[in-house]
Amino acid sequence: MKITVIGTGYVGITTATSLGEIGHQIMGVDIDELKIEQLNNGVLPIYEPGVEPVIQNLLKQGKLHFTTSLKEAMEGTEIIFIAVGTPQLSDGRPDLKYVEEVAREIGRHMTEYIVIVDKSTVPVGTAEYVQSIIKEQLKLRGLSVAFDVVSNPEFLQEGKALQNSRKPDRIVLGCSSQVAEDVMLKLYENIDALKHLTSPRNAEMIKYASNSFLATKITFINEMARLCDLLAVDVVEVAKGMGMDKRIGPYFLQAGIGYGGSCFPKDVSALAMMGREVNMEMTILKSIQEINQKQTDWFLERVKECMGALDGKRITLLGLSFKPDTDDIREAPSLKLIQKLLAEGAFITGFDPVASNKIKNIFPNIKIGEDAYSAVKDAEAVVICTEWKEIIDLDWRTIKSLMHGDFIFDGRNALDREMLQLEGFQYWGVGRNLNKIV
Ligand SMILES: NC(=O)C1=CN([C@@H]2O[C@H](COP(=O)(O)OP(=O)(O)OC[C@H]3O[C@@H](n4cnc5c(N)ncnc54)[C@H](O)[C@@H]3O)[C@@H](O)[C@H]2O)C=CC1
Ligand SMILES: O=C(O)[C@H]1O[C@H](OP(=O)(O)OP(=O)(O)OC[C@H]2O[C@@H](n3ccc(=O)[nH]c3=O)[C@H](O)[C@@H]2O)[C@H](O)[C@@H](O)[C@@H]1O
After folding, report:
1. What's the pTM?
2. 3-class DSSP state for residue 406?
3. Is the ipTM of this complex over 0.95?
4. Which residues constitute the catalytic centre (predicted)?
5. In terms of CATH, what superfamily is 211-429?
6. Where would you tag: which of 317, 334, 362, 438 has the fewest CB atoms within 10 A of its CB?
């Protein structure tokens, strides 16, 4: 089938490559000329493991093209995916301006039946809204062209985009007509996944409910971690024991310095706002936001408890992206931590396998190590913000010999506590500090 994907961010690129891989003909569209030029040269503008060679292969086979012209891309297309950003507005709602712009442009160029697919994360009712925008444009042109708007939310995790899209847990299809449902099922017939057929409004809610539930799970274990610290209990053991119950499951129970990224914070906020708009206070979501906001403060308090005043102390942060295997620093906990540590007067050095430069652009006053070993030189404490494998696998004996102190604050509970203690570190993990009973 001939497909157009609008937006070449994480979701657009993943949609384009995964559909290209199962044999469809893809046109990727973006208003960002530099991105389009890079992509046409087989260069991936983001860091996402494994995706670049797939793009290069599809370009070579002629199955994938990128352009800045939506009009050109739309010629003969059967399906258009809208995969543009929906960033958070200052009042907490998602900004739909990119979706609106794209819908208007589709309406300006459409001449025959097309299925328009909302891939972006958008509030309940947006499929109907997009439909009304396109209809309005057609009316201005004096045309009456049939079309459908489908909600097909994306569930990929950054850093695992390729494996998620090749073998998703489920594909949610919110269709308002049988024709659209048949088109979408044909599109995905070669992807082996559960297919949940439902209405567009239900599909839109499934996306927000899923992200908010995952954020709830993380926040629950983070709050448990705070209690574990006060009662001499190890939260890692607790999560392990809880996760063995199939009804709970082991995933998203890793306590840490809070969730970040471009989606959980904005989507929890958007769902809370959706409730507020119909006069329903989403009390669980409100608590989650508050607890997550305070997780870095709580963490910093524990650092101060161990090290005393931080003024003039040399602290190295390892792992700066919001999670491993991505260069994305949107809402990364490291940003808040750096800001707070600088405000306390600490001297900060940072290192991340791929995101160091992005952090340096935001905080020009901090030092960036060329590698983890040079970053820890003379540090009095090391803080793990992101559990990159190459950070976990460092030679910790060498790290200790390079440091000027012995504190290690494991903000992701990712390191081997016993091994580090044997190497002479004072190890502190989130909710696993058994030496304190109140
Ligand atoms: N990043 C992720 O892992 C996931 C994101 N989502 C959702 O998917 C959507 C997209 O997210 P990302 O890919 O992270 O966004 P992004 O911000 O990385 O990329 C969006 C792209 O859309 C382009 N764009 C904006 N207006 C355009 C227009 N009029 N025409 C063509 N291109 C245009 C931008 O230039 C940019 O390249 C959001 O709603 C997000 O919540 C959903 C699941 C996972
Ligand atoms: O809508 C989205 O954009 C996506 O949001 C998340 O994916 P992502 O933000 O890429 O990353 P996650 O792996 O979910 O991690 C999010 C944050 O939670 C933190 N986290 C995750 C798991 C955990 O156990 N503990 C924990 O603190 C991570 O460190 C990270 O900061 C969801 O997992 C995806 O299903 C969804 O498609």
Report:
1. 0.97
2. coil
3. yes
4. 263
5. NAD(P)-binding Rossmann-like Domain (3.40.50.720)
6. 438
